[in-house]
Amino acid sequence: MSPRLKKSLGQHHLRQGGLCRPLVEFLQPAGGRVVEVGPGGGVLTRELLAADAAAVVAWEYDLDWAFALRRQTEDDRLTLVVADALDLAWDRYPAPTLVAGNLPYGIGTALIERLLAQAEPKSIPRAAFLVQLEVAERLLAAPDSPAYGGLSVLTAARSEVRLLGRVSKGSFRPPPKVDGAFVGLTLKTPPVTKEEMVGLAATIRLAFAYRRKTLRNSLAAGWGAATATAVCEELSLGHNTRAQELALGDFVRLHQAYLVRS
Asked: Dihedral of the CA atoms 194, 196, 201, 206 (nearest 10)?
């Protein structure tokens, strides 16, 4: 008998392994090591093993489901870690390691942000996740689109993102209120050094912190009005320009101009 699904942990398990085919085909796990986040009942876990992954290290927060998965999956290639995946140190995994997971809706965005901030492309070349459709749209969004925001820019700085397929809410047990989507991330070297990325990320978050304000007013909240105005004028960004209009390259130039004046 399987453990009960806990609403407090955002547990929505896939009903069929075949639904994971787009994710598995993107990862190409044969002969490789995969870190899986939130294996739950093991639907994706078994698909990764069936695709000849050499090792699957599954991080499961819920002890009951971890024990159930261990009982149901007798495979020496599977290692179970009972811990919070938000504590994963992505920069410590040996190259190459792939990452997969049906992410609990409450931690999906935070986990992807931490992965991209810590991981090196040579160590973790690819990652694929099942997330809320809304999160997928934010990851994939282009400038001047409704879903475009800080997450879109930071994701573009560190990876190439692909929509691998949509998943209807009826494909889960129990059904969530919204549909999901598979996304594939191919990690890449960011446009600035790892140390500089910390400051660039802060600039991007500041720019999007007040979505109803103009870019100048948003930046003024952290930089001061004089500096924000001077930087925007230097880059020929008009008074009514908003953060949603800028692409990744624009934010790099914006941050570099700020550094000269700070």
From this structure: 170
